[in-house]
Each structure stands twice: as C-alpha cells, then as structure tokens.
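User: Can you recover a sequence for this backbone? Please restate the input before giving your answer.

Assistant: Of course. Working from this structure:
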C-alpha cells in the first residue's frame, strides 16, 4: 500500500483513510511501526528520482504522521499490547511522555530506567503537571531514580504501609492509559518477560484515574524529599 500511494507522490484522503484503518487493525507495536517508517524512507528515496523532492517529502511526512503511536487525540479508539524483553514497552512509555500535553499521573512500584527518568523530567520542564506515586521502600533502593525526580521539582508521594504499592500504570492527559506487569526498570526491558497495555478506553481510564486520585489523597502527607 505504501508503494502504491507513493506512485504519484501524493497521499490522497482516501489512501490516508485506508492506511489508517489497516494500521488500526494491525495493532502494531512501536518496533513494527519503526520498521514501516524505515520502509517509507526507502520508498521515498526511490521515488525522489521520478517526482519533485518537495512532493516526495510531503508524502513521507504524511505517512510518518500515520505511523506515530496513537494517542486518542484524533478520536480513534485503540488498545495495543507490548511485550519485553526488548524496547517496545520502554519506547511506548517514552513516546507517551513526549506526547503529553497537560498531565502525567504515574503510579509505579519503582523507576530505575534512566531513559524513562529523563523523559519524565523533560515533560516536567515543558510544563506538564507530573505526579508520581511509588513504593516507599523501593524509593530508596540502590539505582532508584525516584529521589532524582523529587530533586527535579516533581511531586512524588509514597505509600506509608508495611505492604508494597505494587501498581504499574500511568494516565496521560486523562486520555491515555499504560498498564501491565512491566516495571519501569532497565532489567524489565533487557531480561524480564513482561507485558504492557496501551489504551484510551473510557471505562478503563475512569477506573485508573479514580484509583490514582484515591491513592494520591490517601498518602497526601507522605511527600518524598529529594
């Protein structure tokens, strides 16, 4: 389909709709989307000898927009699955942080992956309202980045119970949910058999948002100092 739409170096409205529908049905993970972006670049390079460069670049830009991970902002409904070991889960987390426009509510057992930490801090510096809820014991583990987040000015709260705050979920802009077994750690991406779901399902978003707010209020008097 990509090669056919590139024949005239123009992605028509009908072609755009058809591609969007096929991508939705395929439910591609970030790795697969990356492969398609690479293929689109190869096709554009091949077609650049037959069409004006501006037209080919416009086609490539249109295709790349379709290949971005869905955010729900365009009104589409989606649920995607990602698995580790590998980079699919961490890439989806980082893409969600990069794409956040207003808020990021993060409720995870621990954070030790520096790539995720950097993306969280970058979102905070862009003016995104970032809130982090995490386990009180894991916050002080060797390699934990949680105190670094607090030092960066991000509000971090921890549970004060003798049990673990074992959630692994995040809600972005009240419209995108990430959840699953995946720990936000380097070992999870390199070694562990983990899973993560990305969805904009309204019922799930409502349930997870309410749970976050409940925990946030419950542990209002337990902010973590950097």
């Amino acid at each position: 389909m990509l090669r056919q739409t590139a024949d005239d170096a123009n992605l028509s409205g009908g072609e755009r709709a058809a591609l969007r529908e096929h991508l939705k049905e395929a439910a591609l993970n970030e790795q697969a989307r990356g492969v398609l972006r690479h293929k689109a670049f190869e096709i554009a390079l091949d077609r650049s000898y037959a069409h004006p460069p501006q037209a080919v670049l416009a086609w490539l830009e249109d295709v790349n927009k379709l290949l971005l991970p869905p955010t729900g902002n365009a009104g589409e409904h989606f649920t995607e699955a990602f698995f580790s070991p590998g980079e699919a889960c961490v890439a989806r987390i980082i893409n969600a942080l990069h794409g956040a426009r207003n808020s990021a509510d993060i409720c995870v057992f621990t954070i030790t992956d520096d790539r995720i930490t950097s993306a969280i801090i970058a979102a905070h510096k862009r003016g995104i309202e970032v809130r982090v809820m995490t386990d009180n014991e894991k916050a002080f583990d060797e390699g934990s980045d949680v105190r670094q987040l607090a030092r960066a000015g991000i509000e971090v709260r921890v549970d004060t119970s003798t049990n673990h705050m074992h959630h692994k979920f995040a809600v972005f802009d009240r419209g995108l949910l990430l959840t699953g077994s995946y720990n936000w750690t380097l070992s999870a991406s390199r070694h562990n058999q983990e899973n993560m779901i990305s969805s904009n399902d309204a019922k799930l978003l409502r349930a997870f948002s309410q749970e976050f707010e409940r925990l946030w209020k419950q542990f209002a008097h337990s902010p973590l100092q950097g």
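That completes the design. The chain has nine helices and seven strands.
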